[in-house]
């Protein structure tokens, strides 16, 4: 199929290099807010529907972190518990966690302060899939950030999840967590123009020398996907295959509708 469409690589995949990512208005704003939150050791909440580009925003953030100044830890565990959190952080830094949770928490606090005050580095902890967190894990976020009688933070905490996470944090007994969030952003889908630009960008990255998707096809892709990048990728990949099987060099609206029917 790649030879048929004169491509040098596979487009519309998750494996695209951070340097080749498409920057929509939502991605740019997410990147700016995340960068600011990290630089100022803030608690940041990043939300968005599934497939909206949250993971892409995090990949870009991590790619930009200078290892001379930052340590980062990415944890994606929908069943994360406070005990598992402290164990994961300590083991990541080569420390054997204490068996008792209270002792492991003290180890964690000492470690974070040591890295910040003595190594002069900033730890960035990213917790993904947070909309699945238990009540106890959500409540623990308050203590993860509590240093020196809650007067400072030696780290930046980025919590990522679907929009339902915002509602979870609004309940009365989690109000103390909600109030601690210093930066928040909810990602949105691509506009119709951005969808067009995104598709052309993906094809340009793999060296395609000519247009493949018709304007009608792109409009149909946008209408079905509502600008959600993961849905756009799926539609484009499947419609390319459909056009290849039928021997068509141009992906038209009919290919998109056939794929939509199959989906």
Automatic annotation (TrEMBL):
Q: Could you tell me which InterPro entries the record lists for this protein?
A: AAA+_ATPase (IPR003593), AAA_22 (IPR049945), ExeA_AAA_ATPase_DNA-bind (IPR052026), P-loop_NTPase (IPR027417)
List the SMART domains hit by this protein, alphabetically.
Answer: AAA
Q: Which GO terms describe its molecular function?
A: ATP hydrolysis activity
The record's section on SUPFAM superfamilies has: P-loop containing nucleoside triphosphate hydrolases (SSF52540)
Stretches assigned to the AAA+ ATPase domain: 40-233
Q: Source organism's superkingdom?
A: Bacteria
User: Matching PANTHER family, A to Z?
Assistant: GENERAL SECRETION PATHWAY PROTEIN A-RELATED, PHOSPHORIBULOKINASE _ URIDINE KINASE FAMILY
* Full protein name: Type II secretory pathway predicted ATPase ExeA
Q: What is the lineage of its organism?
A: Bacteria, Bacillati, Bacillota, Bacilli, Bacillales
């Amino acid at each position: 199929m790649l030879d048929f469409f004169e491509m040098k690589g596979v487009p519309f995949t998750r494996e695209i290099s951070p340097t080749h990512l498409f920057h929509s208005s939502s991605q740019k704003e997410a990147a700016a807010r995340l960068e600011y939150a990290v630089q100022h050791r803030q608690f940041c909440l990043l939300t968005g529907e599934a497939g909206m580009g949250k993971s892409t925003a995090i990949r870009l953030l991590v790619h930009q972190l200078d290892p001379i100044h930052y340590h980062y830890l990415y944890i994606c565990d929908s069943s994360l518990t406070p005990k598992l959190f402290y164990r994961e952080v300590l083991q990541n830094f080569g420390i054997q966690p204490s068996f008792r949770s209270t002792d492991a928490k003290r180890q964690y606090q000492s470690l974070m302060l040591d890295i910040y005050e003595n190594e002069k580095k900033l730890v960035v902890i990213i917790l993904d899939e947070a909309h699945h967190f238990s009540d106890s894990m959500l409540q623990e976020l308050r203590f993860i950030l509590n240093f020196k009688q809650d007067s400072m933070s030696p780290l930046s905490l980025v919590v990522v999840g679907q929009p339902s996470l915002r509602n979870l944090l609004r309940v009365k007994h989690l109000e103390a967590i909600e109030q601690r969030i210093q930066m928040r952003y909810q990602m949105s889908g691509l506009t119709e123009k951005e969808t067009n630009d995104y598709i052309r960008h993906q094809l340009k990255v793999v060296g395609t020398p000519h247009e493949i998707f018709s304007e009608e096809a792109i409009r149909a892709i946008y209408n079905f996907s509502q600008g959600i990048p993961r849905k756009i990728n799926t539609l484009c990949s499947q419609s390319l295959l459909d056009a290849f099987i039928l021997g068509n060099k141009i992906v038209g609206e009919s290919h998109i509708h056939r794929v939509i029917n199959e989906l």
